[in-house]
Amino acid sequence: MELEGATALVTGSASGIGAEVVELLHGAGARVAGLDVNETTSNVELSIICDVSEEREVVSAVARVHEAFGTVGVAVLNAGIGGFGALVDMPTHEWDRVMSVNLRGTFLCLREVSKHMVSAGRGGTICAVTSISGFLADRMMGHYSVSKAGVAEMVRVAARELGPFGIRVNAVAPGTTDTPMFATARRLPGYEERVAERAALGGLGSSRAVAEAIVAVLELEWVTGQVLAADGGVSLWSPIDPAESLSG
User: Fold this and answer.
1) Any catalytic annotation for residue 148?
2) In terms of C-beta density within 10 A (0-12 exposed, 13-18 middle, 19 or more buried), how is residue 208 classed?
3) Sequence spans of domains, the chain
4) Residue 59 and residue 80: Cα distance in Å, rounded?
5) Which residues lie below 8 Å from residue 127, measured CB to CB, with a gap of 6+?
6) Catalytic residue list contains 144
7) Which of these, 73, 107, 169, 208, has the minimum number of CB atoms within 10 Å of its CB?
């Protein structure tokens, strides 16, 4: 899809991966609207304060974007939060907190954006941000992992439902990425170093690198229903790899 002149909506646009996506889309000549619980201060034509877990706010925000831009052909559903805790000890309100933003919020935004795309009859491209934690079994992150697995499956179902309308739906799954959300994990002794060592490409991912993967997926005309891991190869690591037992 040609991004120059396109109209785009980005959630979680004020920082991290979302802010980098906004900058790349703006640089490619797109008109961008940013939705976030904080104001998006640069590279957008329209900034809307929006909690994606609140249905009325999402419905209102997406309607405002379409009213301002006429239609939206590009959407990046990036808003998300993290969490930490064992399932056996997890309070219901903590489970709901993560699910409400990551899974419910992505659903609400997908529903509203695609509804307008279908009505406009011009097709479109949507990319949701999931995580490699959605297909790995990370301890102490059960609610986060389940929410991101749900996003990945939602993308596949949406791709089938929306394909006849010329709307492509894909996802990018970052691994450990140097974003504000990663700050909590940095408190764990040796965690950052261990992850960096296990990534095939070495180190942590940057918000810009993941944003570049998202924009690339948006532009692929014959790809839909796919989840691209943008993780530097950290999800390739296996604890049963026999080569780890070989000296040298």
Assistant:
1) yes
2) middle
3) 7-233
4) 18
5) 75, 76, 77, 169, 170, 171, 172, 214, 217, 218
6) yes
7) 208
Amino acid at 217: V
> pLDDT tens digits for 61-77?
999 999 999 999 999 99
Which of 26, 66, 148, 198 is catalytic? The answer is 148
Q: Which fold has domain 7-233?
A: Rossmann fold (3.40.50)
Beta-bridge partner residues of 171: 128, 227
Structure-block tokens of residue 87: 């399932």
- What b/e readout covers 156-179, taking b as 16+ CB neighbours within 10 angstroms? bebbeebeeeebbbbbbbbbbbbb
Region for residue 29 given its phi and psi (left: phi exceeds 0; alpha: psi -120 to 50; beta: otherwise): left
Q: Which of 14, 144, 167, 215 is catalytic?
A: 144
Tokens of 73: 């052909």
In tens, the pLDDT along 151-197 reads 999 999 999 999 999 999 999 999 988 877 666 666 778 878 888 88
